[in-house]
């Protein structure tokens, strides 16, 4: 421990002795499902009046090497192991509450149209796993004067969400009541919805640009945490350098007029029950990320100006594994190009990524106009809202 | 550029009609031969032709890899390969039309987030790979008492569900007997012979069981009838004939782990239970019934968490609590018929509490918190000297609970824990890892026995002499109480000391 770190630790005092919530500095590791829910947590903690929210940095080899290694108790996919680096990094920051939620189920635009919206089992359980690496030999959080809080978080059970959050936080946030927690949860959802609405509006703007200029776009099918440059290795950014707009499946526009254009005929034919029904292509619709990936694949297969799909998947991803063939078939059944970057791990294979991206770009440039025409021929007239 | 059909569609099996029932064989698998034989009896009683898939072999792993997407866990790969091998054999024998029309495959889905709920996706890749997409594969929900497959040919009714539950209970109990007795059998092979005879006897009982009622009356009959207990009393007489020598000092190894891998007996888990026995251990096998008990109790725990948000809370709690209670009551009645030699089901609430500091009980998928709870339960109650957790390579939930065990071991450094990762093709590695912990377990079993002899002042010769006057003690069905020691020999010596009035 260096001198500066020692000074930081000396400044920390147990939360219980502090009456003022402004003194609470919450550290949140930027890992796994935080990538899809971070705005909820910002809204939630701001509503509770905590002093500061500190996120860990993006995942990197350096972060993992410096703060994570030696704390891994079982081999698993890198996105899970990387949590050790995020938690370790936060222990060296000016925080007094380390908040690592066990997110069991997720808020999803597909809720009500699928069986469930659960997290991957590894993702939800990762906290218990990685926590053990910090506690097996000594009480590391306690020694550093940091309260460790890891509530069970079922986003799909909104009535229980305040209860679980309140039970885990009441000891650490002075005067916290269940009613206040429930209000903060509402604020959290509002913040998340606002953020997602803005992201979808941005996606729509990109799509309209593609229509106006008759230019192809690329859709990324991955898990939200592949947006983390240390997990997804910025592969989507490589395509942007070639001038291809890149859309993410989880922020696609959901406007009724657009979905009616793409899916309306199938509803009338009785193939699906709603725009968001995926039962025609995927029957085990338990996992939230998987469901949305499948839906994104369906969207890409129908939307003319998405001519290429990039699938990202981490090494040993057991949730992705059963979906590889169905997703590829859904996309390719309409002639849309499909490329997979699988087995992504800790090391960024920059050279091979660049070579593959060049190859993919060649195909996109060669075939995109044909694909757009072919896909347009299967749909009705382009909605006027797209031509704005 | 090739453009295929515009829309991809998920696999949908052709309907299976009632008329086809008499000429169509239902294929199923995934459990031990004992469970499968008894399930066959239950299905046949309801008018279905059925056939278990052949036992898993090493070649199934290679066959599975050829058909399914990369990165699958070994249970998925083994079972998909097993299905592929079966279908290829049948096609060779009966032609493509024969396979499609004369057979169908039934599998169960559960767990939700775990890959277990998505195994059928891999099976569908097998059908595509074999160009047998017309073959019928039905997915049933484990938690539904009544359901039917498209076409109405396959109907899961109350009588069939209860037949399946009894098949599972019976096979679990016989398996518990088998592993408790085989290491101590005086005549080698006598246990295996009696296991086969027991299963055949129970198969006949299930195949010829009376069908009483259809709904609630069926439930009441199945819970309270003496028919199933009487059958086990007949079975007990077969086991009575086996002579055992409980003075063989052996480490007790509790098997936990991923559902399929821990239950399996064969190449899929390197036959590790038999291997442990050969290495001088007594194995405590994991009953399927524990997992069902877990699923039922999880409903209760979830309900309790939601108190205040659930309408008719007390009524619902009473209903689920009654189901959980009846489930255990029936299991215990059956155990009693075998003189309580099979182990009782662990208290699920206790497992949840033990695991709580390390693993939240609502983190479901696979065995959830149970693996940690079971390890601690066995350790704290001195049920076993060692825990052997079988974890499939690439398993989603299992890897997480194995990792969380690091903290448990920090708190309980004496707990002997051997997490074995099973890939299916690296048995020497798995055996050597297990062997390292087993060596320590053997030492502890020996020390424990010596401690008992010292405490009681008995010698092995004293016990042998006492046995000569009390030959019933050497019967396989003689129940030795638990005196707080993990080893069978230690508890037996304590029991003799008590009978002799020394303690």
Provide a concise account of the structure shown.
The complex is a heterodimer of chains A (388) and B (503). Chain A has 388 residues and is α/β, with parallel strands linked by helices. Chain A is 48% helix and 12% strand.
Written overview of the protein:
The complex is a heterodimer of chains A (388) and B (503). Chain A is an alpha/beta fold. Chain A contains 14 helices and ten strands. In chain A, the strands form three sheets. A four-stranded parallel sheet of chain A has the order 2-1-3-5, with helices on both faces. A four-stranded parallel sheet of chain A has the order 8-7-9-10. Chain A has a two-stranded parallel sheet with strand order 4-6. In chain A, helix 2 crosses helix 8, helix 4 packs across helix 5 and helix 12 packs parallel to helix 13. The longest helix of chain A is centred in the middle third of the chain and has 36 residues. Chain A is globular, with a radius of gyration of 22 Å. The relative contact order of chain A is 0.12. In chain B, strands 2-1-3-4 form a four-stranded parallel sheet. Chain B is 54% helix and 9% strand. In chain B, strand 5 and strand 6 form a beta hairpin. Chain B contains 18 helices and ten strands. By secondary structure, chain B is of the alpha/beta class. At the A-B interface, helix 5, helix 13 and helix 14 of A face helix 4 and helix 15 of B.
């Amino acid at each position: 421990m260096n001198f500066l770190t020692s000074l930081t630790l000396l400044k920390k005092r147990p939360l219980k002795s502090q009456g003022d919530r402004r003194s609470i500095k919450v550290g949140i590791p930027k890992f796994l499902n935080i990538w899809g829910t971070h705005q909820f947590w910002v809204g939630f903690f701001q509503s509770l009046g905590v002093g500061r929210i500190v996120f860990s940095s993006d995942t990197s080899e350096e972060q993992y090497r410096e703060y994570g290694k030696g704390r891994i108790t079982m081999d698993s996919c890198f996105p899970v192991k990387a949590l050790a680096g995020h938690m370790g990094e936060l222990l060296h920051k000016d925080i007094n509450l380390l908040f690592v939620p066990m997110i069991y189920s997720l808020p999803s635009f597909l809720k009500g149209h699928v069986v469930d919206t659960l997290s991957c089992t590894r993702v939800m359980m990762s906290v218990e796993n990685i926590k053990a690496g910090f506690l097996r030999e000594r009480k590391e959080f306690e020694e550093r004067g940091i309260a460790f809080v890891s509530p069970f978080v079922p986003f799909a059970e909104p009535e229980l969400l305040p209860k679980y959050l309140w039970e885990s936080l009441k000891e650490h946030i002075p005067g916290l009541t269940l009613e206040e927690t429930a209000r903060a949860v509402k604020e959290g959802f509002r913040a998340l919805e606002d953020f997602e609405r803005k992201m979808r509006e941005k996606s729509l703007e990109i799509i309209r640009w593609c229509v106006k200029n008759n230019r192809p776009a690329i859709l990324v099918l991955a898990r939200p945490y592949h947006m983390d440059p240390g997990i997804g290795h910025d592969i989507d950014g490589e395509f942007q350098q070639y001038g291809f707009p890149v859309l993410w499946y989880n922020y696609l526009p959901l406007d009724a007029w657009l979905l009616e254009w793409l899916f309306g005929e199938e509803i009338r034919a009785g193939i699906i029950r709603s725009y968001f029904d995926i039962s025609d292509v995927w029957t085990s619709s338990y996992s939230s990320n998987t469901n949305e990936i499948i839906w994104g694949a369906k969207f890409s297969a129908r939307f003319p100006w998405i001519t290429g799909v990039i699938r990202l998947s981490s090494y040993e991803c057991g949730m992705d594994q059963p979906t590889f063939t169905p997703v590829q078939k859904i996309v390719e059944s309409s002639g849309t190009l499909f490329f997979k970057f699988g087995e992504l791990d800790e090391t960024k294979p920059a050279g091979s990524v660049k070579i593959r991206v060049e190859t993919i770009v060649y195909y996109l440039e060669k075939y995109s106009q044909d694909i757009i025409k072919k896909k347009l021929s299967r749909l009705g007239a382009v909605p006027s809202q797209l031509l704005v | 550029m090739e453009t295929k059909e515009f829309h991809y569609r998920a696999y949908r099996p052709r309907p299976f009609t009632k008329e086809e029932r008499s000429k169509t064989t239902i294929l199923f698998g995934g459990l031990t031969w004992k469970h499968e034989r008894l399930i066959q009896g239950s299905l046949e009683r309801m008018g279905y032709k059925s056939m278990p898939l052949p036992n898993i072999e090493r070649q199934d792993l290679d066959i599975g890899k050829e058909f399914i997407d990369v990165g699958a866990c070994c249970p998925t790969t083994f079972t998909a390969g097993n299905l592929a091998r079966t279908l290829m054999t049948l096609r060779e024998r009966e032609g493509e039309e024969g396979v499609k029309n004369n057979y169908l495959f039934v599998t169960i889905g559960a767990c939700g987030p775990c890959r277990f709920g998505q195994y059928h996706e891999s099976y569908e890749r097998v059908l595509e790979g074999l160009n047998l997409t017309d073959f019928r594969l039905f997915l049933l929900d484990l938690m539904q008492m009544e359901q039917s497959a498209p076409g109405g040919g396959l109907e899961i009714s109350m009588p069939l569900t209860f037949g399946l539950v009894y098949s599972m209970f019976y096979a679990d109990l016989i398996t518990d007997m088998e592993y408790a007795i085989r290491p101590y059998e005086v005549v080698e092979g006598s246990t295996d012979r009696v296991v086969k005879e027991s299963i055949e006897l129970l198969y006949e009982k299930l195949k010829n069981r009376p069908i009483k009622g259809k709904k609630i009356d069926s439930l009441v009959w199945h819970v309270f009838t003496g028919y199933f207990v009487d059958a086990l009393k007949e079975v007990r007489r077969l086991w009575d004939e086996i002579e055992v020598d409980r003075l063989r000092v052996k480490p007790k190894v509790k098997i936990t782990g991923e559902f399929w891998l821990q239950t399996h007996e064969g190449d899929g888990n390197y036959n590790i239970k038999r291997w442990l026995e050969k290495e001088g251990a007594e194995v405590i096998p994991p009953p399927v019934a524990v997992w069902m008990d877990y699923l039922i109790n999880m409903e209760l725990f979830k309900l309790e968490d939601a108190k205040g948000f659930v309408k008719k809370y007390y009524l619902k709690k009473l209903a689920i609590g009654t189901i959980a209670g009846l489930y255990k009551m029936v299991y215990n009645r059956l155990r009693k018929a075998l003189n309580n030699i099979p182990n009782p089901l662990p208290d699920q609430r206790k497992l949840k509490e033990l695991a709580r500091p390390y693993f939240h009980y609502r983190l479901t998928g696979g065995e959830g918190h149970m693996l940690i709870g079971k390890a601690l339960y066995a350790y704290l109650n001195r049920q076993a000297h060692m825990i052997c957790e079988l974890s499939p390579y690439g398993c989603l939930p299992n890897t997480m609970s194995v990792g969380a065990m690091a903290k448990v071991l920090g708190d309980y450094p004496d707990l002997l824990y051997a997490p074995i990762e099973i890939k299916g093709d690296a048995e020497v590695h798995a055996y050597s890892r297990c062997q390292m912990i087993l060596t320590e377990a053997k030492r502890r079993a020996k020390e424990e026995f010596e401690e008992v002899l010292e405490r009681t002042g008995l010698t092995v010769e004293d016990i042998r002499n006492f046995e000569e006057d009390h030959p019933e003690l050497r019967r396989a069905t003689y129940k030795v109480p638990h005196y707080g020691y993990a080893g069978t020999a230690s508890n037996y010596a304590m029991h003799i000391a008590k009978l002799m009035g020394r303690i």
